Amino acid sequence: MRYAIIADIHSNLAALTTVLDDIEHRGGADEIWCLGDVVGYGPDPRECLAIIRKTTNICVAGNHDWAAIGKISISDFNPDAAAANQWTAQRLSDEDIEYISNLPLISESGDFTLTHGSPREPIREYLLSSGAALQNLAYFETRFCLVGHSHQPVVFTCDENEDCSARYLLPDSPVTTKESRLIINPGSVGQPRDGNPDAAYAIYDSQQQLVSLYRTPYDIRSTQEKMQAYDLPVRLSARLSYGV
Ligand code: ZN
What we know:
Layout: E1 2-6, H1 13-25, E2 31-34, H2 45-55, E3 58-59, H3 63-68, H4 79-91, H5 94-101, E4 106-109, E5 112-115, H6 130-136, E6 144-146, E7 153-158, E8 164-168, E9 175-176, E10 181-186, E11 199-205, E12 210-216, H7 220-229, H8 234-242
Parallel strand pairs: 1-2, 2-3, 5-6, 6-10
Antiparallel strand pairs: 1-11, 4-5, 7-8, 7-10, 9-12, 11-12
Helix pairs in contact: 7-8
């Protein structure tokens, strides 16, 4: 079985459709798992929700998803994120709101736990250090955990003695699932922040026991033009060019 893992789409329709095409190009996936933040920042929340609803087998809620339906406050969002989130909230249909409100915070499938931020704090925690990864091992029971939220493609490999090490996930350097407990972040589809503007996602191949990261360029300009037309914060559209 092949599982495509996507996270942090952030209403970037051009990035999402390019990633889904790229998955097909690489032989397709039996299931698509989504790690949250379908909306927020970008210009196409409704279109992205429609595709996610149709194509994913599992999707968990992210902080931007919950904020857009008023389930959490935007008081700790920076001004640009808050402005984009308020704009997003106005565009959602009743059906969109219902879909988001029914997304779980944590989901399990086979050897994997899926969540947005961390198993310890699904909506808020950014899993960026091996120390935090180590602490989070107590909060999920499966061997592996998939997270998003930081927009950084990274894998934490934890050995038998419960010590974790971190490394960036790069294309052509897949992670084996033959050993260890792992916490994996596939990076962001719609707003990469690791200095590479190409959309990021991963594929888990259960037969090969490998998780591979992929990067794909997409039409950034088309997303930026829509953001300008909707008067979304300039900084949010500019950052897409640089992957920051
Ligand atoms: Zn995000």
